[in-house]
Amino acid sequence: MNPNTADILIEALPYIRSFKGMTVVIKYGGHAMVDEQLKEDFARDITLLKFIGVNPVVIHGGGPQISKVLEQMGMTSTFVRGMRLTDAPTMDVVEMVLGGKVNKGIVHQINRQGGKAVGLSGKDGGLIRARKMHIVYQEDENKPPEILDPGLVGEVTHVDPDIINTLTEKGFIPIIAPVGTGDEGETYNINADLVAGKVAQALNAGRFVLMTDVDGVLGPEGSLISSIDAETARKMIDEKSISGGMIPKIECALDALKNGVGKTHIINGKKHHALLLELFTDQGIGTQVTV
Fold it and tell me: How many domains in the chain?
């Protein structure tokens, strides 16, 4: 046995104590959903969290899996600002893949590790209400912006956490596909980061974790920033030190913090047991975003 094992356990003890009874919302996506060993690591991490008294709630993505099935069916996808333009036939595939294959695959992995996971979509129990999202797109700064209709792409208007609370109180682990329902019964495809942030707010989560394929927020020299406050994060966005795909993740984290979530974390899901290392060690492995 590694002689440092006991030290690691002792280091984790105060975190385990402080997290007991806490709700932790995790957005699960990226490479961690594709690599078989990482999928198993994630399932073990989630199961362990539940066993030590934490209430994990998982919201998952599934973009690559959707694209693969669409390709197999001879259907193409168009993306604008990272959003998949979604017509009715595409929405049928999105719902089938997210709420079926991907969701149940995660449920199965966690249950194999001894957890009691239950798969949901935002349509279950009135969990996620949504409305159509309109995308403002400017191809060239010399041209006026366009307002694009992305089809059945939605944004969250309301989260009713009753079904999640009922499940967690009974010892279950909710696994949620990011699909919501409109006022007229429409089904909307919603960005998983946005859904996870809104669910974290509705649950008054103590922690909100965004799993990505990068280490977190990087400083000017390319080194990882282990902790950043809201003011500094906004300044870095203005100065373009934070750019690209990290901007919407930071904005999602800041929105969650502004609306009652304790702390948020951006971590690299490609690292084995990333979730446990971030939550239960002194240094962590990603970027903690605080008020």
Answer: 1
